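Chapter summary example.
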Amino acid sequence: MSYFTGLHKPASFYKANRPVVIPYKTLLQLDPSSSVPLYVQVSEQLRRLLQTGSLLAGHKLPGTRQLADLLGVHRQTIVSAYDEGLAQGWLESRPGSGTYVAAHIPAVQPQVLETPALGNPPNETPGYSFAANPVLARPLLTNQAGLRLDDGFPDIRLAPIADLSRAYRSYFRWGNPQQHFGYGDTKGHLLLREQLSLYLNETRGLHTTPENVLITRGSIMGLYLTSQVLLRPGDVVVTGETTWAGAVMNVQKAGATIRTVPVDQHGLDVAALANLCDRQWSIGHPIRLVFVTPHHHYPTTVTLKADRRVWLLQLANEYGFAILEDDYDYDFHYLSRPILPLASADQRGMVVYVGSLTKSVAPAFRIGYVVAPSALIDELARLRRIIDRQGDPMLEFAVAQLFKTGEMQRHFRKALRTYQARRDRFCELLTDELPEVLQFTKPDGGMAVWATFDPAIDMEALAQRAGQQGLFIASGLTHNPPDQLLNGTRLGFASSTEEELERSVLILKKAVSE
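The structure predicted for these 514 residues follows.
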């Protein structure tokens, strides 16, 4: 039975012919234990009745004393609830008559209260349509396990938390206090851009000024902004056959087409790239951008040889494509002084250099950077402004202070020694405990080992079995090129102590044997 007479009549019928009987005692369900005041509960529930068509424009509400008696609350509660509606404009008071739903409220078709809504509830499925982009259909990995051989993350226990806390406190003693809580520079805090510029020039051989640096919330924001600015639908972008899925998604989201070239033990096959450049040029569809991780190729960790780097830059100059260089873990190279980035040898502004402190310090340090000619930095900042007005000026200032005092550099040196010892121990464990089921090459740098498993091993099932025993490993499925099964995954060692690595390898060994 419907609460409403003549449910399918138009709203004007109710307004002009007869009142609708509203069972307020049933419809208004108050929770005295809630932190929301009772008068707000009454006001909000009345407003929802209006939105669902249960209350119509011009409908007279019960007197405050009458409704208070129905609901078992103090009269002042109802007075305050009506005052809310009056202040918000959906109720109106008529002197000598009472309180009414405002006459200007649009008519809404009443709903049958006893009939449940069909389909999913509105907090799950919206009432309007939208297109789910298949490019973004990538599962979110959650790690509930106590131990982890992750993608190659830093150990947050080594992060310079005490130094960072002191730097945060100094923020409020520095400069004009009124500036601290206002809008800042979209490009990032000037002090951090100055310090990063000095640091990158000193350690990577770059030739930058603060005007060449844009601070972002991690490297993936830099990749997104660069892809959106440089790429147009149909542009051709080249990556390695194995590459970072996050970069591919950003490129595809911009509408570009992916072409791949092989990757071997010396990095990206630049000879294959040169042939592809010729083919694309001959058909009038030249390559627009090449994405590379030359220092430690993702995911296989190999380093791009010096002669290939020179050739890659020559190809960029010849064919006019941009190079997007993601240098995600440059600070951790163990054998010798690392080869300088491509950007250090760029003489014509062809390289967009992207980096991050996320992999160097901790994932919560959402600070990345883009280094490029100032004209591009200005355009990236204009785009960034409409999606993320600015970064976190307090965090940026604090991190800048750590660079200025040398604390960040000391952290890098300490972490480098620790991670090298963990790499050595982890590789020993893999060699001793799993020699028959996986192959790997001891990486010269980075924070993970690229391991390929026996083809008979189901990597997805292995990851599930390990997880059930308290160890997180990724299945590695996202690393597979189209129509290829590498049966490999990245096993991160940096975030675990040597004792944790020993336990992890034993669990992995057990999971393999099951």
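To summarize the output: The domain at 177-405 is CATH 3.40.640.10 (Aspartate Aminotransferase; domain 2).
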